UniProtKB/TrEMBL annotation:
PANTHER family: RIBOSOMAL RNA LARGE SUBUNIT METHYLTRANSFERASE J
Catalysis: reaction(s): adenosine(2030) in 23S rRNA + S-adenosyl-L-methionine = N(6)-methyladenosine(2030) in 23S rRNA + S-adenosyl-L-homocysteine + H(+)
Superkingdom of the source species: Bacteria
Function: Specifically methylates the adenine in position 2030 of 23S rRNA.
Organism of derivation: Acinetobacter indicus CIP 110367
Taxonomic classification: Bacteria, Pseudomonadati, Pseudomonadota, Gammaproteobacteria, Moraxellales
Catalytic residues, chain numbering: D167 (proton acceptor)
Name by which UniProt lists this protein: Ribosomal RNA large subunit methyltransferase J
InterPro entries assigned to the protein according to its UniProt record, in alphabetical order: RlmJ, SAM-dependent_MTases_sf
EC number: 2.1.1.266
């Protein structure tokens, strides 16, 4: 595989994914019962945006860099989920340097409680070694394993409640993501009460429509689509936006997500006209 997340860490898509991840966990925390967080592509756990890969792409400049430059007066009016996200980023920057940026396993462990557990997959050997060095938490089990082979072996977890965050590199998952749809259908069949959150890039609207049509026809109920597109759909820039498809979203999460995305959009959009942020039900109850 050629994909390395260090090139993309801290970009607008990471901002969106991590804000919504924290909001999902906050909603799960509302019940006084433990849960399991499962991260299918854990990556390195944290990144240094001052190093060559991130500097070469510069993607973080139109993501987290824009937000940390905002005046405190603007941040004070941000939704609670956005403020939690920015506080955690600042926490890491204070301990690891101004170039530090967390990955999803680190964010998740900060958002979880002591009673909750995490299972983190990463199949690339060198990245897994970085993950093991960066994530040292007794609540987290780290697995050097391919999620397409391993996920069905760890669900349903003993806690019965939980969230699976699926964020593949989209090297194998091309076209309308058939492997991903197959995995989701099989995982939902094994754990119909689990929360599944799938991040995906938006480059070609027709492809996303085909993916959504497949998911609609899957028979899975309660599918929520969260989107942010910082460019208009027809802009040939490589990544116009991204989405998070959430199966079984917790109570009130749709409202949290919409509030956060509507606040983030004007700060992350790439031009004055076009683009959007939206939350909608693909399949209801």
């Amino acid at each position: 595989m050629n994909y390395r997340h260090h090139f993309h860490a801290g970009n607008f898509a990471d901002v969106m994914k991590h804000v919504l991840l924290l909001q999902l966990l906050t909603r799960l925390n509302a019940k006084d019962k433990p849960y399991r967080y499962i991260d299918t592509h854990g990556g390195a756990g944290k990144y240094d945006l001052s190093l060559a890969p991130a500097q070469k792409s510069g993607e973080f400049l139109n993501g987290i860099h824009r937000l940390v430059k905002l005046d405190d007066s603007i941040i004070r009016n941000a939704p609670e989920g956005v403020k939690q996200y920015l506080n955690l980023v600042e926490q890491m920057r204070e301990t690891d340097g101004k170039g530090a940026y967390p990955g999803s396993p680190w964010f998740a462990l900060q958002g979880m409680r002591e009673m909750d557990k995490a299972t983190v997959f990463e199949m690339q050997r060198d990245v897994f070694q970085q993950l093991r060095s960066n994530i040292r938490d007794r609540r987290a089990g780290l697995h050097e394993r391919d999620v397409y082979e391993g996920l069905l072996g760890v669900i349903p977890p003993k806690e019965k409640r939980g969230l699976v965050m699926i964020d593949p590199p989209y090297e194998l998952e091309r076209k309308d993501f058939p492997q991903l749809v197959e995995l989701l259908v099989a995982a939902y069949k094994k754990w119909p009460t689990g929360v599944f959150a799938v991040w995906y890039p938006i480059k070609d609207r027709a492809m996303i429509e085909r993916f959504e049509k497949k998911m609609y026809k899957s028979g899975i109920r309660r599918q929520l689509v969260c989107e942010i597109c910082v460019w208009p759909d027809d802009t040939p820039v490589g990544l116009n936006g991204c989405g998070l498809l959430v199966i079984n979203p917790p109570w009130k999460f749709s409202e949290d997500a919409d509030e956060a995305l509507q606040w983030l959009f004007p700060h992350l959009r790439m031009q004055d006209n076009g683009g959007h942020a939206a939350v909608r039900w693909l399949v209801g109850e």
